[in-house]
């Protein structure tokens, strides 16, 4: 699956273990989602373009670098909110858009309930973040919506990806780079990722169904 980059880092392996463990309480779960997102952001931002800038050190003029591309981070709510801090800590000037989507428990299709997308999305590098890529329905719908607003440069960053979701997202939006902390085995009959980590949103916000 070369449309997918699985970031290989010992800290991510440790963090995923904390997240998968059913005994992890929501406070540590939320912190660990943020920490793991920061590692994904660090790796993903390697390709961000830079421009040279003239600055003065206390001793002499020199050349430095500034990020030359507008960055927009778009969490898919709720669970994607847990990854925003991990991304914007490295790019504090980034704008943050929001897309609210809730998967219908029976059909597994995403139902939209909120959208707020910055006007500059058409000239930005857009990082869509959500811990879980299961069937791919939510990610596909989010990126379709962002394309309607004019966006055309995307990375989709998640913690746990299912092979079914990677395939579906790639087929629907072949130009989207997918970055994950792990590629898990499969979806189960409820479209939950196995082994997975359960319902990411409920575990981040401490609201088990
Ligand atoms: O790839 P898919 O099959 O679309 O599934 C993944 C989606 O499901 C979860 O959200 P959920 O609907 O549980 O909403 P929540 O974030 O409010 O918990 C998850 O955070 C993704 O958004
Ligand atoms: O395993 C899954 C699938 C969808 N949403 C989740 O939060 N977890
Ligand atoms: Mg959920």
Automatic annotation (TrEMBL):
Gene Ontology CC annotations of this record: cytoplasm
Record: residues binding uracil: 193, 198-200
GO biological process, one term: uracil salvage
Pathway: Pyrimidine metabolism; UMP biosynthesis via salvage pathway; UMP from uracil: step 1/1
Keyword Ribosomal protein: no
Assigned EC number: 2.4.2.9
Matches recorded under Pfam families: UPRTase
Residue ranges annotated for the Phosphoribosyltransferase domain, each copy included: 6-207
Keyword Protein transport: no
Activity regulation details: Allosterically activated by GTP.
Highest taxon in the source lineage: Bacteria
Positions with a binding annotation for 5-phospho-alpha-D-ribose 1-diphosphate: 78, 103, 130-138, 199
Catalytic activity: UMP + diphosphate = 5-phospho-alpha-D-ribose 1-diphosphate + uracil
Cofactor(s) demanded: Mg(2+)
Keywords annotated in UniProt: Allosteric enzyme, Glycosyltransferase, GTP-binding, Magnesium, Nucleotide-binding, Transferase
InterPro entries in the record: PRTase-like, PRTase_dom, Upp_B, UPRT, UPRTase/APRTase
Annotated GO MF terms: GTP binding; magnesium ion binding; uracil phosphoribosyltransferase activity
Entry function: Catalyzes the conversion of uracil and 5-phospho-alpha-D-ribose 1-diphosphate (PRPP) to UMP and diphosphate.
Entry protein name: Uracil phosphoribosyltransferase
Organism: Longimonas halophila
Source organism phylogeny: Bacteria, Pseudomonadati, Rhodothermota, Rhodothermia, Rhodothermales
